[in-house]
Amino acid sequence: MTDWQPSPRYPDPSVVVVDESFNRYRLPLAKVERLATAADEILPLKDPRVQSNPAYLTVIVLSRVITKLGGLPDVNPRIVENLYASDVSFLQSLYQKINTNGNGNGHRKVACPNCNEEIEVEDHSLGEV
Fold it and tell me: Is the peptide bond before 11 cis (omega within 30 degrees of 0)?
């Protein structure tokens, strides 16, 4: 059996609905994350929760840069706190890719959600992913 690897596409195309009655819970475009600003990383440092527990910085920063998460009306620290650790890890990884210029050459390969064809786009065109 091979080890599971996360899909570079979101939502993961290998996840399928087996029972059609669960389609109402499917979130086809479950998250949108914007580029971080300096304030997104600096202002949370003043938060008492971060000062007492530096690991909480991740929760605050993600809650600032995630602009949409499924059908939720807004994303706040409480929402991020209650995500599974693997989901937070995925969001942290995405945050790093978006905000550190991904592969370092100013371009990124992305897959078309319809035909799966990979194309290369400039990173600055990915203000929201």
Answer: yes
- The Cα 119–Cα 129 span in angstroms is 15
Burial label for 98, CB within 10 Å (0-12, 13-18, 19+), is buried
pLDDT of res. 80: 93
For the stretch 88-101, pLDDT in tens is 998 898 888 878 75
Kindly report the pTM of this predicted structure: 0.58
E strand or H helix that includes residue 67: strand 66-69
Q: Read off the pLDDT band of 48 (50, 70, 90).
A: very high
| Cβ partners under 8 Å of residue 126, min gap 6 | 98, 108
